[in-house]
Amino acid sequence: MLPSIGIVFLAIGYAVCEDSSEAGPRIQTNYGPIEGLTETLNDGTTKINVFLGIPFAEPPIGKLRFEKPRTPKKWTTTLETKTVPASCPPTQRKYIHVLGDKIDEDCLYLNIVAPSEPSTEEGGYPVLVWIHGGAFALGSTAQYGYKALAEHFVSRGIIVVAIQYRVGPLGFAAWGDDNFPGNYGLWDQRQALRFVWNNIVHFSGNQKRVTIWGESAGAASVSALSLSTQTNHLFANAIQNSASAYAEWATSNRVIAATEEYADHFKCEIKDAKKMKACFQKLTLDELYDAGDKFSPMVKLSDRLFTPRLDADFFTDDFNGLLAKAKPKPTMIGIASEEYLILALIDGSIAELPDFSREKFIKKVEEFAGEELFKEKASEVQRKIVDFYLNPKNAPTKKDNVYYFKKFVQLFSDVYINVPVLNEIRSKTQAKWPVYSYLTTYANKGLIPEQVPINKPTHGYEIPYIFNKTQPGFIRNEDDFEFTRILVETMAAFVKTGDPSVPGIKWPAATAVDFLTYLELKPFAPEVKKPLMMDRYQFWTLLTKHYEFDLIKGLHKETLRSRDEL
């Protein structure tokens, strides 16, 4: 079982079970009529319209398994959209309990929450589309609910849309050719955005003022959607919390090795992609869970996961090529100060804390940067990493277990989140994208387990504040309420204007020259600072430049082979 903090940040257990037999608001979509719910916000007067479980694609079942989503068939009878949709099946059984009461492969639905009154703005209300995270292995709209987003954003004249997409093998299994290319989860996201583009006007929304927003794998998805020629025309702005598609875990051909592992387990044909896919289409969900429980522990991001890959279809070029062709979009992107802390809890590293030594740190480095990647230069690379993290100029004279554990967290925060995000910021500012960067430094100790010696924000720390979901027994203080206010107000301003600045907070965009300019997010006194993690970013930039294997992207620079292919 995940530690409680893991449940809060990685998968917020928040199933919403609204239902009503009373007549509600009706909308005629391009596919058919729907009826939703009318609710009142906490102020007691503001009315909102809620539509839950709107189909944006045909059910991806049977012959449509492992295929791109298809446009939903039209209907004539009014469809009741008053209950949250079933969650898409996760990679493993152990994550079922965090996804709500219903799990089904028929899961390609979205929710829309809008002001009940038509917009008086020209073109309609701006729109915020939420894309959940979960390492591309789990996630759903049921985890998060809609009430907090309604209070925070719909009350400010913003329509909120929450989408679902296939995850795990059902969403990303791939064999690497046109017959079994993968990226089905990304195509689901595209289909959902197309639905919004073509239908949001019926909800009094403005198709030209759509902002997409995601956290973790959702943020990596937003990153990918902003680059792909298949999708980057379907929205105006982007918000990314704690992830980038530039990371190895977020975009990698390692998914092919994971797919082969499944195929071998099920005795499917591995030399013919068509036959392999046909074999996969016949598997039961229980059989897929069995394989997931065996092969996909998801205890650390270096494990094989089912993720997006560069496929020459959704991604018609590498990221540099796509960026050169893409129209710049205002982007709000940032990280928390100790991103890997939650993952250290999940992967069990916290259990090693009492005797976490220099030797253990070195062993972690050796496992991560081994001879299979660097051959005879492996020890040299390992030594450089160890020296940089364990022997900085300000290192304490006495180094105890807590020191080495903190450095372990710092190292893998950089590898999996920080440096990929900074790479994306640098690339986009060079391409003249307006990029508004942030670093979250505030943490309430009540959200951190007692056994953890680091009282700093971790991966996805902002999400419980935005969705009003924290651990049982957690009591918010004045700083928490102020932190939430800053998050919500800057996000709302960004959705409406493409600039997160609000009264009292002038948030400058980073530039190609000062791409490490950022806003430190904290209660009462957010500050503009620079440069963001410059020493760590420079270290990884130089290390990548001098050696053949890129540890950040997980690729051999000359052959473009992944770890599993070397």
From TrEMBL:
Domain Carboxylesterase type B: 25-540
Keyword Signal attached: yes
InterPro entries in the cross-refs: AB_hydrolase_fold, CarbesteraseB, Carboxylesterase_B_CS
Signal sequence range: 1-17
Superkingdom of this protein's organism: Eukaryota
Keyword annotations: Signal
Cross-referenced PANTHER family: CARBOXYLESTERASE TYPE B DOMAIN-CONTAINING PROTEIN, CARBOXYLIC ESTER HYDROLASE-RELATED
Protein name: COesterase domain-containing protein
